[in-house]
Enterochelin esterase
Amino acid sequence: MTDSRYLKRTIVKDQINSIHLNETRNLRIYFPPGYNEVVSYPVIYCQDGEEFFNFGRIATIANRIILDEGAEPFIIVGVEVDTSVRTAEYAPFGSRFQSYVKCFAEEIIPYVSQKYPVRTNPAETVIAGDSLGGSVSLHIALLYPHLFTRVMSLSGAYYEASQEIIAMEQDLSWLDIYMIVGLQENEFQTDTGTYDFVQLNKDTKNLLQARGAQVHYQEKDGKHLWGFWQKELPEALLYFFEE
């Protein structure tokens, strides 16, 4: 049974008008237990924001690890996405990729930083995502290293285009990335083909490590589903926020 303390969550909905995307983008903001608006907090920005909250249960998990497992209180910002254009926004070959990346780094981050008491030091900021959300999080960090040096990648979709971009980097000693992939993701069907996510992640890990990145990499039993990622979220969050 889930402790009732974990279910007392403070979550607000917000939205931002994006010039780069020419549309309104919805946000979900989680505040930790004991939240005080005069105190600043570390922050994690999540792609697929609605799914992280609904299927990943990230707010409940955050409450638990903050209350019981010594995690430093942190704010969560979930950036929602229209699934019909998700690949177009998250994949580097997508038609909306450049606009989305600019919206995220140049509009959403300044908006949140101005309105909410989040810390802006890259050492206290995490960017996270699952599948294509994991790979776009890494791409945003590569393009804006002054904003993001810490990435959480849950079964990242590191297709050939992503690996080519990473291979062009020379020094990634500033990057700290948490990568996990499920061993049953070796024949996963996507809207662009069938892929071996285990091999994609292993190859990407090698590319990153060869360029000096700090990589925490794990392969565990699991499928390309939120059922797997939800179970792994506590350990992933504690990697970044444990005091």
The first strand starts at residue 10 and ends at 18. The chain has one domain: 4-241. The two ends are 27 Å apart (CA to CA).
